[in-house]
């Protein structure tokens, strides 16, 4: 293990992040909660994979969840604009303005995985993940951190 760390140190910026740092699974439930308040990914990830699982039983029309990544400053705008698109539009803004990445809207028992690049995102910026189902984003939110 020590040896691997040393090699990674020598390679510096060209080293590739451990795959497990680039794949995250978040659960959501019928109590309108995400299983975590924070997602951390390495800046070295070429691609980030986020899986959202809805471990509840309620249909997406009643307790639908998605996971949408935005700049912190855009979160309210995105959730407000998303309301008008309804279940069919995954409660996402029609113009996708402010949406960096988003799963589809899930009902109980469903899951979705999204993959995206961190290109264009910066370590110094504040990002959040939210659920844009109407009324959910004030509770269903957490920090998305690039470390
Ligand atoms: Zn939700």
DSSP strand content? 25-35%
- Strands side by side in the biggest sheet: 2-8-7-4-5
Order of secondary-structure elements: HEEEHEHEEEE
Shape: globular
Computed over alpha carbons, the radius of gyration is 16 Å
What does this structure look like?
The protein has 147 residues and is of the alpha/beta class. It has 3 helices and 8 strands; from the N terminus they run αβββαβαββββ. The protein has helices at residues 2-11, 60-63, 75-83; strands spanning 23-28, 38-41, 48-54, 68-71, 101-102, 111-116, 127-130, 141-146. The strands form 2 sheets. Strands 2-8-7-4-5 form a 5-stranded mixed sheet, with helices on one face. The longest helix is centred in the N-terminal third of the chain and has 10 residues, at 2-11. It is globular, with a radius of gyration of 16 Å. Zinc ion (ZN) is lined by residues 32, 65, 131, 133, 136, 140.
């Amino acid at each position: 293990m020590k040896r691997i760390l040393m090699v990674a140190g020598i390679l510096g910026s060209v080293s590739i992040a451990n795959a497990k740092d680039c794949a995250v699974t978040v659960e959501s439930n019928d109590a309108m909660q995400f299983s975590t308040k924070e997602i951390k990914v390495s800046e070295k990830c070429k691609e980030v994979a986020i899986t959202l699982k809805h471990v509840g039983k309620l249909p997406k029309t009643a307790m639908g969840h998605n996971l949408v990544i935005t700049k912190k400053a855009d979160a309210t705008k995105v959730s407000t604009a998303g309301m008008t698109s309804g279940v069919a539009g995954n409660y996402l803004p029609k113009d996708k303005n402010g949406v960096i990445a988003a799963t589809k809207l899930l009902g109980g028992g469903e899951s979705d995985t999204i993959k995206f690049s961190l290109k264009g995102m910066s370590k110094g910026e504040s990002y959040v993940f939210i659920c844009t189902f109407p009324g959910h984003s004030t509770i269903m939110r957490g920090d998305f951190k690039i470390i």
